[in-house]
Amino acid sequence: MYGNDFAAPEDASGGGLLGEVEAAETALREAAARARRGGPAPDEDLEAYFADVIDADQKIEPRDWMPEAYRKTLIRQIAQHAHSEIIGMQPEGNWISRAPSLKRKAILLAKVQDEAGHGLYLYAAAETLGVSRDELVQLLLDGRQKYSSIFNYPTLTWADVGAIGWLVDGAAIVNQVPLCRCSYGPYARAMIRVCKEESFHQRQGYEILYALSHGTPAQKAMAQDSVDRWWYPSLAMFGPPDGDSTHSEQSMAWKIKRFTNDELRQRFVDMCVQQAEILGLTIPDPDLRWNDERQSYDYTQPDYDELMQVIKGNGPCNRQRMEHRRRAHAEGAWVREAAAAYAAKRAEKKEKVAA
Amino acid sequence: MSEPSPLWEVFVRARRGLSHTHVGSLHAPDAELALRNARDLYTRRQEGVSIWVVPASAITASSPDEKDAFFDPAADKVYRHPTFYQVPDGVAHL
Question: Residue B5 has what DSSP assignment?
């Protein structure tokens, strides 16, 4: 939770997200320290062996045997996660040249650089499953793999950079913290790294909104307008409701996912309400209210038909985002070729010297 | 389309006196660019003072299948540990 930096891991549940990341990291180390069973016995059923490792909360590593469907679902999930980081640079990159102060601009640059880094960590994690990054990039360019629906919304004002940090990165971190305990080792380790950096993003976004909402009436109105536009798309980031989620059940059994879409969405709403109060901004949901019985907030669900439309490619910016990505890839081809030719020339020279 | 650029494994030493630790991997056309990218990617927040990059193709890994047989001999040679030896009472500095 924002501002709850130093929560001890033991009281972290439901509290500090960073605390939960720390706890996941500790659990990872402990799992590694526990005497781990070796490979499967020669006559052992591989499925049973795999189930055993998952049951014991140990990590599956790249060279371990795994069911083909587990491998496929992880490739899909990690790749789409990586694509999201890369496409996600665009809406914010849109404001780099127009950031209102040098400090804000430097911070935004650092943040967008982090997103590129997250994309690379994730592509690297996906590659341990036996695909190449180039294949995955091609799948994205061909429109055969998706990225997060949220990046198909436009950034219309500077306040949107704040709303993205607070709400979008906030939703991402709520989603990603449990992934720090995912059963696939390389993904879990990448998520620990990503979450630590993501919480910088969430805080910088919150700070932008805080400065605006405590500034002039025009600034406050701009902040409110951006929260009004980003609230429901952020809720939709958690995916379709549990009843309609195609991959959830199997992913939970494999301990890739730890919580359902709806559970995470609820957690996000619960933590945003208090944060919005401190901002002095209103969450654009007239039916948002505390439910004493459930000890959670009741809220209005996002428009899932709209979510489906955006995922299908019919959101406000889908075409623009993909065009931009394809153009960068195509126009960068000669640079990649030049780098490869230069590397080959240098390698050849080295060989000659060695000979 | 050009050849995909090769994969590099990255090792970072956090401080003097510690060992290099594997932190991840990246693609780059040559060692120099791999090193520069590793600097940007893995040491943006002062995580290290020294970086090694190694072409992934140069690494040979042991296989998890042979894990038991491969590492078993360590278990029956307890005399490799100093705790195996009895020290008579009263001996100092041993």
Answer: P
Residue range A91-102, pLDDT digits in tens: 999 999 999 999
**CATH architecture of the domain covering A16-315:** Up-down Bundle (1.20)
User: ipTM for the complex?
Assistant: 0.73
Q: Three-state DSSP class for A142?
A: coil
User: B61: which chain A residues are within 8 Å (Cβ-Cβ)?
Assistant: 63
Residue A172 CB contacts under 8 Å (≥ 6 apart), including other chains: A198, A237
Supply φ then ψ for residue B21, to 5 degrees.
-120, 140
Query: What angle separates helix A169-176 from helix A217-236, to the nearest 10 degrees?
Result: 30
Subunit contact B2:A333, Cβ cutoff 8 A: yes
Contact B11, B1 (CB under 8 A): no
For chain B, which domains are there?
A: 7-62 (3.10.20.520)
Query: Chain A contacts of B67, Cβ < 8 Å?
Result: 38-39
Tokens of residue A291, six digits: 């439910």
Amino acid (1-letter code) at residue A167: L
For chain A, the structural domain boundaries read 16-315
**What are the pLDDT digits (tens) for B13-48?**
988 878 999 998 999 999 999 999 999 999 988 788
| Candidates A63, A337, A339; nearest CB to B64 | A63
Minimal-distance CA residue of chain A relative to B41: A117
The CA distance from A99 to A153, in Å, is 19
Nearest CA in chain A to B32: A343
Q: What is the pLDDT of residues A51-73, one digit of tens each?
A: 988 988 889 998 889 999 999 99
